[in-house]
Amino acid sequence: MIALDFNLNFLTRDLSLYLENHVKVAFFGSGVGLSLILGFSAAYTCYYLSSVVKKPQLVTGGEKFCHFLKEHCPVVSETYYPTFWCWEGRIQTLIRPFITAKPWVEYRNEFIKTADGGQISLDWFDNDDSVYYPDTASRPTILLLPGLTGTSRESYILHMIQQSAALGYRCVVFNNRGVSGERLLTPRTYCAANTEDLETVIDLIQSTHSSAPLLAAGVSMGGMMLANYLCRAGRETSLRAAAVFSAAWDVFESTASLEKPLNRFLFNSYLTSCLQASVNRHRQILEKLFDIDHVMKAKTMREFDERFTSIMFGYATNKEYYKAASPCHKLKSVQIPVLCLNAADDVFSPGHAFPVEAAKQNPNVALLLTSHGGHIGFLEGIWPRHSTYMDRVFKQFMQTVIEQGSELENL
Q: Which residue intervals of 310-368 are DSSP H helices?
């Protein structure tokens, strides 16, 4: 024991001398390095708590919906604490796909035919082990719409299914044409402005599970498509309510933001290449109508849309397509409860383009706006692997509508 104490004292003394000498050499004075680290940490903490951590802003067009959300969805009133080491929007956007877990989900795949001869791939999570809703006929169904090139295997979709499974719900993921491995049967893909495929899917779900409550949640472009559908359908929809996450409300503003040098480098070029890769996979059928080589030379998403998307869906100009794809111009037509989550630092949907005034004029619409969170980020906690703020908003809203939805009648 005496020898052990002697060795520890010896090592402690040497370590102290080593640190003291190196601190002197590096920082021209003993303890300066530690002081700088502590000072920086204190300053960073003060900035984080005073400027980053904030309560979300809830914008609604009616007191009834606002009161409903605050009473039954406490998450809308909670202070949002972004992950302290990656709170900035671009960082949250970039890191989320790599840091969040991908829960295992076993799907049942179904192909359905469309009026034009195409096919749509649906991935069902039937949740036959549901404890709360053992009767499949009445088990609530959540329709999920992934982002621009997303599929049922995206981490945010898997998290939504995990949250839904815990509540006993059934889920079905609507994969846009040609993105989940299936081949195109017709020279047609998808876009945010065209909701025909979505309407087909909703009709199928309703006819298959007519006694079950049906809700929907769309993310990014999936949210835009869902919002455009709701604007067009009004009250003529089978959906009881919907949630929209990280939607680009004004495509003109979103495109301008993504064409800024840093955003173009980080996001625009990559997404353009993903869209081109999808087109190239289906070159054999698409080249009957399009100059694929010209499409493959596009450098930005705007150029891709000018050469491919707007032409495919019959728009005279790309500006005409972007106007049709922007839900902000039509939000007043939504006639069912919709909760929309956006972050002010989302470069895909800049804060100045949020449809705040339109939401204030529609009692069916609620915007939940956070200061940070990026695009489909909303990371929180020290190591945000298993749950995000977006996950909690999704779970609470879906559960509340299904269990307390009668309170939302006649908004």
A: 310-312, 318-325, 356-360
Pairing of strands 141-145, 214-219: parallel
- The residue written with tokens 């939805």 in the block is 405
Angle at 387 between CA 267 and CA 368, to 5 degrees: 70
Residue 369, beta-bridge partner list: 57, 342
First to last CA, the chain: 77
Tokens of 360: 């204030």
Instruction: Map tokens 């920082």 to a residue.
Output: 27
Average pLDDT over residues 291-296: 97
> One of 238, 375, 387, 391 is an active-site residue; which one?
375
Catalytic residue among 220, 238, 257, 278: 220
Q: What is the dihedral of CA 144, 366, 49, 95, to 10 degrees?
A: 20
d(CA 202, CA 350): 30
Q: For residue 167, what is the enclosing H or E element?
A: helix 155-167
Q: What does the pLDDT look like over 33-78, one tens digit per residue?
A: 788 888 888 888 898 899 999 999 999 998 999 999 999 999 999 9
Annotation says 346 is catalytic: yes
Residue 220 annotated as catalytic:
yes
The reply to whether 282 belongs to the active site is: no
